Automatic annotation (TrEMBL):
Keyword check for Protease: no
Species for this entry: Eucalyptus grandis (Flooded gum)
Coiled coil region boundaries: none
One Gene Ontology term, aspect cellular component: membrane
Protein name: Protein kinase domain-containing protein
Residue span(s) of domain Protein kinase: 360-632
Amino acid sequence: NYFWFEFQGFISIDCGAPNAYTHDKFNISFETDKGYIDSGENRQISAKLIDEQNYYHLYKNLRSFPNGMRNCYTLRPDKDKSNTYLIRASFWYGNYDEKNQIPIFDLYIDVNYWATIKTSKNVFQEIVYVPQRDYIQVCLINIGKGVPFISALELRTLDSSLYQIKSGFLGLVRRYDITRNSNFDIRYPDDVYDRIWQRRTINSFMLNPGNGTSAFELSKNNDAYKVPGEVLLTAETANNGPLFFPSNNSMNRWIGYFHFAETQSLLRGQQREFTISTSDGQFKETVRLEYLKPVTVISTPVTGSMINFSFQAQSGHPSPIINALEIFLIQELPNVPTALDDGMVKLRSFNYGEITRITGNFGTEIGEGGYGKVYLGTLENGTKVAVKILSKKSWQGDREFQAEEKHLLIVHHGNLVSLHGYCDHSENKALVYEYMANGNLQQHLHGDKPVLTWKQRLHIIVDVAKGLEYLHNRCDPPIIHRDLKATNILLNEKMQAKISDFGLSRTFTAETDAHVSTRAVGTPGYLDPEYHSTASLNKKSDVFSLGITLLELITGHPAMMMKPEGNVNILNWANSLIESKNLQKIMDPKLKGEFDRESAWKAIRVAESCTKPTGDQRPDLDHVLADLKDCLKTAPEPEKSPEDGKQNQKI
């Protein structure tokens, strides 16, 4: 079945939808966001507007991104890189937040600018794109003018012989089915590639199909572009003046795809033959039509402040016609996605005066580390941020500052802190992050923050494992954090955990790579014991640090415990208790018995596997993450907080 075969090249996401479904008109199966992005919030347009867009079911839901500057969907099509894809992103603000303030934000394809989104209507942006790697990222970029959002994201696999691109990508400007019929646009299943054909008239000289001409006959004889027979069935005569397309930049390059089909059985000896050209001579081509045989004419790239295409019949031939057309803007790809040092987006650059202003002259200190102090700040649009100031006396210094800026620029995951911008003026350096309202994990385990429930602790360690798994397995090349610990795990207002502090992180080009350091890195208690003999850190070093963090969550003890006889490593302390199977003494007393025995033992076994003495004994992070998810699934929701003093899930 041809339609079934083409359907396998579809990725269809109804962003923000609570459930997957099959669209009753298009017969396309739409998925939820799950598996494509980890950040963002599911929302729905205003109830006052829902009934206005029954046909456009995709615009009912949306996903908004109030946190982070860059949030990306990752698409993994069946075909390899160098295949040609149609990618369509749809948007309708629909006053979902009841603020009636239309946001403005940028849309990126991989590491390159695609479009700026600003509209109160339901619109879509569409491109024809050949990726440079085996996956594609569609990113929404916060430019400080409102919260980015998206309603739907669709990918369609095209035949690579179509829409051939020598450089850059093709941004759709117009795709018209020339007809007086103003009913709904045509797309899948009529169009096997699911292109959306908007029905338009150019002039009043419609050409009706001759007797016996059918959409089926046109589809059966179709060329490689497979324009639907329903689209080709109607046409207009095209000798009543040129087609004009204004350009806001005379340097822009445009390309036209003109689709023709003779739908009338002309008198014997008659045949349409005409030229398509621009008035300035940039393009000219002659086309000859045969009955029921579709033809596609592709222009050369043309430039100018006003693009026009004229149609002129050859002497003695019937008037020219046009059945359908597509106009694209050729957009460049200046950035290469596989190089970490290429800026993936242009971060906001703050001057020192702006840093002083947004922090209220450094009025509220919320943290301190090896770099210096961290202050609470507020951007012009009311967004709260954390501002890390590099101290002139910092023991870490410029290299770590630049490493953190570089890594935060390229990573984008719901369990990694995101970067809003930076200040790099002479001796005044700062990084501006998303604000994490509930502080760091150490404050909750060993400080004066509210006691975490057992379920919350499992949620936190799963979040951390998700972030690390992304760094190890979904960044190209992989990133090793090298300093995971409780103070570098931050919690937002929803108690979602995010990894921070990438100053010691390193990138690796091969699975077996390790980084040999000539100076001390990491933190005692969390540091891979192999480091002392090899001076190198790798993926399994992060696994060890994750295991120590899990032990902290289980026991409530810090990684290094102060004892009269000296510092004691939590691993050495816990091992003897684990061997004796004394669960009551292992678990954090602050839990007051409020935990599930089965999930507790599962978590302990995961911590044991992560903290084996050598890296080759430890599991990969994808296995660790699967096991931790199983722990979380096993643990029931507590009826009471541990602070209530009632034991509802005693061992």
